[in-house]
Each structure stands twice: as structure tokens, then as C-alpha cells.
């Protein structure tokens, strides 16, 4: 009815309509508008099983030697697996030779169908034999390694031991072509990908598709292989003694930090190497060696935790190839917040004691 005139439209009750559309069950309320006319609505079945790709008998295998000394895949390791997936295409499978600690489901998420664990306590002279024993059941078409100090050495030893052709320093890679610099980096050479390949960092994108199975396989049985050198257990370095350019985890203080006692306590509890902005170093609150930025140290850390840093252009240049940036700042529109993958919009003086209490409570 409008101004006393019947319109003929049925009156709607929004509350009753919402009650009819509400799907029963589930952790969060969900509305199904298609059921408002009395249609049966199936109850929520709960969380779905994660989608996973399983490969039983691929046409061929591609191997990736992945370094994970602390049980975590860094950017380089994920790119190595991404390169293996490029070479495998739709018909091939990827087997990861994991040199380090168990990385859990991360290897499957990074693109591996199978995982073989390698004992890194064996010396570099025996590692090629261990790799060949691990690769024997797969007969891989290609073996991809990162051009790291360890990976580059293993690749050359593996090629020399097996007689497989090798291409190092691949700049661009596809299933049919590998491009690498030659002639003192003045020219490039394109060729069919060799059996063994090494990749510098940031040449191939990591795998971003559906998670693969990452099925564990038994390690190689190599009791008869005697190494001339045995490598002892890996000892974690003290964060305070790691050079800033080599530190995997850096925690930095900016002008917004005034409680440096809490800052030092938190960095020690978190096992972070300390850094600072130029303003803090100019004020003498932190040593010049701790300065992060274009006029200080350019980082290549896995994680950078910034307290009270606005993010001047010169400072952001110092973040280099940092994988994860976490910012604590009171300004929602600060440049460091835009650069960060995770931000806490709060005063550093309130956040640092809270983190200290949390870490001490967890022991």
C-alpha cells in the first residue's frame, strides 16, 4: 500500500527471509539465496579436503636438488623446484632430493611429486655418489640445482662422476631451451637443456599451481660409500655475530623506537640480527654497521621486522631481495607498510613488551 493505494506487491519480511536462507551447521553463518522459495538446502559439509595432484607413473622424471638446512624452503629452493616443473611440463614428474631437514608439506606445495631425503653429514666428495644412488630408480631426464656454493659444487661433481652434460648459470629456461651467458657475459647461447643444470637466483619463477603430493621415498642405501671427509653437525650461528648482509632474519629500529632496552631484549629472544635506519645511526643510538639502506647495507634476508620505520626511498632500497617484510608503525599510510606483507598498526613501545612477554611465556 502506498498513500492508501494497494500496489499488489507482496510485503517482504527481511528477517524471516534471512532465517529461511540461513544454512544450518558450519563454523560461520552462510546464506543460500537460491533456497528462499522453500527449496531444500543441504547442510554445510564442513571444510573441504585440500586439492592435491597425485602422479603415479609419469612419462619421465625431472630431479631438483633442494637445500633446506633448517627445514625451510627459501626463495632459491622454491625457484629450483619451479624450474624442474617447467622442464617436466604436463607429462613429467618432479622428484626433490632434499639436502637438509624435513620441510614437511612445503616441498609438495613448491611442486614436488616425490621427495628423497639426503644426509648432508656426508662429505662433498661422496655426495655425487649418494645423488646417483638416489636418482637411479627415477632415471631423470634433467637434474636442476641452485648455483649456490654447495649446489654449484655438487652439480659439477655430479656431472664429472656421471659423465652427464652440464649447463651452468642458466638465465632463461623453458622445456625446449636453456639460455646462458658466454664470452665473458657479452653474448648468450641458446641450446637444448642439458642433463644437469644450475640456476642463479631469480631466473625462474617458483611453482604457483595446485599443490603436488610430495610423497616421501626411501633414502638411498649407500653403506659402502666411504667419504674422505665427514661433515659434522650444523651449528646455528649467534644472530649478533652474523654480518647484516648475510643475516636471514633482521630486526630493525627506526625513529619510532625509544625503548632500546626492550628492542635489544626482543632481538635476542627472537634470534634476530639487529639493524637500524639512518636516523637512528646518525643519532648514535645504534652502530653505523647496523644501518640498512642505500648508504648502509643492502639486505638479502628471509624476513625483515621493522619497528617504527617510515620507509624512506633510500631505506627501502636497502631491503633488496628480502622475502618477507613485517612492519610495526602507527601510520597506516607509511611507505614501509605498503612494502610489508604483514603490518601491525600500533606503537612499537607497546608491541615490543607484548612480544617479549609472549616469547617468555612460551619458554
How does this structure look, described?
By secondary structure, the chain is an alpha/beta fold. The protein folds into three domains: 13-44, no CATH class; 60-217, Rossmann fold; 239-361, Rossmann fold. It contains ten helices and 17 strands. Strands 7-11-6-3-4-5-12 form a seven-stranded parallel β-sheet, sandwiched between helices. The radius of gyration is 27 Å and the shape is globular. The model is unreliable at 35-42 (pLDDT under 50).
Task: Describe what is shown at a glance.
It is built from ten helices and 17 strands. By secondary structure, it is α/β, with parallel strands linked by helices.
Amino acid at each position: 500500500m502506498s498513500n492508501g493505494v494497494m500496489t499488489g506487491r507482496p510485503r517482504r519480511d527481511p528477517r524471516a527471509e534471512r532465517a529461511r536462507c540461513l544454512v544450518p551447521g558450519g563454523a560461520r553463518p552462510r546464506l543460500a539465496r537460491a533456497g528462499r522459495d522453500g527449496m531444500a538446502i543441504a547442510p554445510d559439509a564442513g571444510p573441504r579436503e585440500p586439492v592435491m595432484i597425485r602422479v603415479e607413473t609419469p612419462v619421465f622424471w625431472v630431479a631438483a636438488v633442494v637445500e633446506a638446512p633448517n627445514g625451510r624452503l627459501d626463495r632459491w629452493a622454491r625457484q629450483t623446484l619451479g624450474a624442474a616443473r617447467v622442464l617436466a611440463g604436463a607429462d613429467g614428474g618432479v622428484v626433490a632430493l632434499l639436502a637438509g631437514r624435513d620441510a614437511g608439506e612445503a616441498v609438495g606445495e613448491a611442486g614436488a611429486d616425490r621427495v628423497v631425503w639426503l644426509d648432508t653429514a656426508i662429505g662433498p666428495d661422496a655426495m655425487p655418489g649418494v645423488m646417483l644412488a638416489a636418482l637411479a630408480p627415477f632415471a631423470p631426464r634433467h637434474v636442476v640445482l641452485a648455483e649456490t656454493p654447495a649446489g654449484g659444487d655438487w652439480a659439477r661433481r655430479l656431472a664429472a662422476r656421471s659423465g652427464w652434460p652440464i649447463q651452468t648459470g642458466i638465465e632463461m629456461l623453458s622445456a625446449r631451451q636453456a639460455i646462458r651467458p658466454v664470452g665473458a657475459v657479452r653474448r648468450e647461447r641458446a641450446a637444448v637443456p642439458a642433463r644437469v643444470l644450475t640456476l642463479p637466483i631469480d631466473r625462474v619463477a617458483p611453482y604457483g599451481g595446485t599443490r603436488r603430493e610430495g610423497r616421501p621415498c626411501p633414502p638411498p642405501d649407500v653403506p659402502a660409500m666411504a667419504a674422505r671427509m665427514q661433515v659434522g653437525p650444523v651449528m646455528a650461528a649467534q644472530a649478533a655475530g652474523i654480518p647484516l648482509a648475510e643475516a636471514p632474519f633482521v630486526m630493525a629500529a627506526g625513529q619510532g623506537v625509544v625503548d632500546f632496552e626492550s628492542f635489544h631484549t626482543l632481538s635476542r629472544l627472537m634470534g634476530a640480527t639487529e639493524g637500524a635506519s639512518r636516523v637512528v645511526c646518525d643519532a648514535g643510538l645504534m652502530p653505523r654497521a647496523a644501518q640498512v639502506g642505500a648508504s648502509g647495507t643492502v639486505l638479502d634476508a628471509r624476513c625483515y621486522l621493522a619497528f617504527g620505520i617510515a620507509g624512506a626511498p633510500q631505506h627501502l632500497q636497502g631491503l633488496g631481495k628480502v622475502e618477507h617484510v613485517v612492519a610495526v608503525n602507527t601510520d597506516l599510510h607509511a611507505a614501509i607498510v605498503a612494502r610489508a606483507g604483514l603490518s601491525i598498526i600500533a606503537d612499537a613501545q607497546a608491541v615490543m613488551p607484548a612480544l617479549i612477554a609472549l616469547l617468555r611465556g612460551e619458554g
